[in-house]
Amino acid sequence: LYRLKSDEAKRMVEQTHDHEGIRVIEWADRSPPLPASVPHISLHFSEEGNGRTLLCTFSDIAFPADEEIEGWRKDVDLPEHIARHCNAVGAYAEVLAVKLHERGFLARGRALRAAGKCHDLLRFIDFRGDAGPKGVEEKPSPVWEQWKQTFEGLHHEEAMAKFLRDKGYADLGEIVRTHGLWLPPEDDARTEQLLLYYADKRLKLDEVVTLEERFLDFRERYGEQHAKMQAEVWMPQCKRIERLLFPEGAP
């Protein structure tokens, strides 16, 4: 919009509102702000010495506030230790996003935090006997059976993605959908999918540990059969993500 007057710029932008693909608008400050209902990403460059600083503001993904997530936790009677794990995964995933920013890569940190806080909200769907951390006894809640019937045939990752879609948070659901053993991220995965997947595998309950320590913990709790699946899926995926996003070593 650099060579356009403000009324011309406004008209040009308005004429493209029904475009279904991606619009890239340069010198966007010459037109009125986009409506809040239009998903967008704002990039602002400023001169800094011999280089430039980029400020990126994501307004393209809707995600729930902490209060809404807390309400969901009450609705499903989420065990306290799983809530602690979710909080820790969300916080660590956001830390990883900041580490990426320092390397010049972008990731939606706040969306990651929200995704982490609710990624295991329906974890109990997969419970078969004692599925909690060693020494923590799972006491089935009376409401769990109802939720299991609602998402019958789905593992908790897919169930949570559907739950979020139904709540109007489809993009967040896509981040959450691939965090587990059954649906790991594909080669074309979003950065946020990789970060959430990796953060989840670095948390032993609410403590950040090495992948090796997490593997031993997993084998202790779930047995050799699941440990074998983890060794064949989790570990190679996590090592690949480490090399891809943190070549100098994982935080």
Would you kindly provide a written description of the structure presented here, covering whatever features stand out?
- This protein has 251 residues and is mainly alpha-helical.
- It is 49% helix and 9% strand.
- It has eleven helices and four strands; from the N terminus they run αββαααααααββααα.
- The protein has helices at residues 6-14, 66-76, 80-102, 109-118, 144-150, 156-166, 170-177, 191-201, 211-222, 224-232, 234-245; strands at residues 40-48, 51-59, 203-204, 207-208.
- The protein has a two-stranded antiparallel ribbon with strand order 1-2. A two-stranded antiparallel sheet has the order 3-4.
- Helix 4 (109-118) packs across helix 7 (170-177) and helix 4 crosses helix 8 (191-201).
- The longest helix has 23 residues, at 80-102.
- The radius of gyration is 21 Å and the shape is globular.
- Residues 130-137 have low confidence and may be disordered.
Which features characterize this protein?
two-stranded antiparallel sheet, 251 residues, mainly alpha, globular, single chain, two-stranded antiparallel ribbon, 11 helices
Along the chain, the helix and strand elements come as HEEHHHHHHHEEHHH
Strand order within the widest sheet? 1-2
Shape: globular
Q: Quick one: biggest sheet? A: 2 strands, antiparallel
Distance from first to last alpha carbon: 41 Å
Report mean pLDDT, rounded to a whole number: 89
Tally of contiguous helical segments: 11
Percent helix, as a range, is 40-55%
Low-pLDDT regions = 130-137
Radius of gyration: 21 Å
Tell me the fraction of residues in β-strands, as a range. Answer: 5-15%
In terms of quaternary structure, the protein is: single chain
Structural class based on helices, strands and sheet pairing: mainly alpha
Strands, total number: 4
